[in-house]
Design a protein that fits this description.
single chain; 6 strands; binds zinc ion
Length: 431
């Protein structure tokens, strides 16, 4: 990589140097200590003191000019009242957010890391105590804006690796595992769990039959296998859903690494439960391959897209950060209403099924043979009357006005098609 390309790839993330000293400049905080004792305290009012303290003869001095990088660490005692103005606490909070973004960026530079990328997407610009950044101290607004810009840059710089291809496959895998996981935990065994359980039990039975030939009194083992099924499945599914990166070693792809991790987790769990039975390893292999076939089958059969409306106030039953990447991979149109982002887009039926098992925050508007562009969805959602997005409306697509959505979508498609024809005519007027 040439030096200029490396420089371009390097993030210009804001640091403590970008945060002004503000009212802290020139502050001189006298330090205190107990008559006998070496610990320095920031205040004579500290409740660590049993008897009146004395001046320590030194102070914590903030320089007259510089940045937050020049403020000495107060260190020491945890009980001292904070001698600094509110600005200090607010600025320190901003510094810790900067540090957070830097760590996420480091992880992304180090290699494929879905969790870190989702972390950047979900990196919100809230201030101290979840406050609106608009309420920040006026001197902190500039570094706050720099942090927001840096977040967008980091997201954009790594977008290529997480928008499609392997990352889409990963998300489908996570979605399918979530589907099975949700189905698994319902009081009545769900329709996805049943065939799975049957297949797994068959394999366990075969393992038992083989055991019985060697060891005729295997009631305990039979019990262990039955009992193990739920726990093993749960662990296997959780390993598939886990957003954190799986060790890739020599694996060709993040997806392959994810499968390998699930297999390892399963094998470890079975070995632990069944001790050193010779069947444990083969059982793990067979269970893994059956489960893998099921997950791959469900993912493939439910990959066809459907048009959905999403109410921005609800969450979907994915690991929560994974929801962020869902919208990156299936962008569509967005309508901001208050703090919520409502959406209209097409995504694999799998996600609507997952959602329908519990929350129902996605609504299927139509099957689609169309390959609509995000612009078409944007136009359609922009034309929904504003009242549909009021905080009192239960779900925006359920209101009368939004009920016209399929119609608005058809209109947006027609308009896009005629704009396309118009553009072609301009390019080639003889047609
Ligand atoms: Zn103290």
């Amino acid at each position: 990589m040439s030096a200029s390309v490396a420089a371009q790839n390097e993030a210009s993330l804001p640091t403590a140097r970008d945060v002004p000293l503000g009212p802290l400049a020139g502050m001189d905080v006298p330090l205190w200590k107990a008559a006998t004792g070496a610990v320095l305290h920031l205040s004579a009012e500290c409740r660590a003191f049993r008897v009146p303290p004395q001046r320590a003869g030194v102070s914590l001095r903030v320089p007259d000019r510089g940045s937050m990088a020049d403020v000495p660490e107060p260190g020491g005692c945890q009980s001292c009242p904070n001698p600094f103005p509110d600005y200090y606490t607010e600025a320190r909070h901003l510094l810790s957010r900067m540090e957070e973004l830097r760590k996420l960026d480091d992880r992304l530079v180090a290699g494929h890391d879905l969790d870190a990328y989702c972390g950047v997407l979900a990196f919100s610009m809230h201030g101290l105590g979840g406050r609106d950044p608009k309420d920040a101290h006026r001197l902190l607004r500039k570094p706050l804006a720099a942090l927001a810009a840096a977040r967008d840059q980091v997201a954009a710089r790594h977008a290529g690796a997480y928008r499609g291809g392997e990352a889409t496959e990963e998300l489908l895998m996570i979605g399918t595992a979530s589907l099975l996981h949700t189905d698994f935990h319902r009081r009545r065994p769900g329709k996805f769990r049943l065939p799975w359980q049957e297949a797994w039990e068959e394999i366990c039975e075969e393992a038992l039959d083989a055991q019985e030939l060697e060891n005729p009194s295997s009631d305990q083992i039979r019990y262990d296998y039955r009992h193990g099924f739920d726990q093993w499945c749960e662990k296997w599914l959780t390993a598939l859903m886990d957003l954190s990166p799986a060790e890739q070693h020599a694996r060709p792809s993040p997806v392959a690494a994810r499968w390998a991790r699930a297999h390892d987790v399963l094998e470890r769990a079975i070995k632990r439960d069944l001790q050193d039975q010779p069947w444990a390893v083969r059982l793990a292999d067979r269970l893994h391959h059956t489960g893998r076939g099921l997950v791959a089958g469900i993912a493939a059969s439910m990959a066809e897209p459907v048009v959905v409306a999403y109410d921005g106030r609800e969450v979907i039953d994915l690991p929560w950060l994974a929801q962020e990447i869902l919208w990156v991979q299936y962008p569509g149109g967005v309508r901001q209403a208050g703090r919520s982002q409502h959406r209209l887009t097409a995504l694999p039926r799998l996600f609507t099924l997952l959602d329908s098992l519990s929350r129902r925050s996605l609504d299927v508007i139509a099957d689609t043979d169309w390959h609509d562009s995000p612009a078409v969805y944007q136009e359609a959602i922009d034309n929904v009357p504003k009242a549909a997005f009021s905080p009192d409306a239960y779900c925006w697509w359920n209101t009368n006005a939004a009920g016209r959505l399929p119609h608005l979508l058809v209109m947006a498609r027609t308009e896009a098609a005629s704009a396309r024809r118009q553009a072609q005519r301009t390019q080639a007027p003889w047609r």
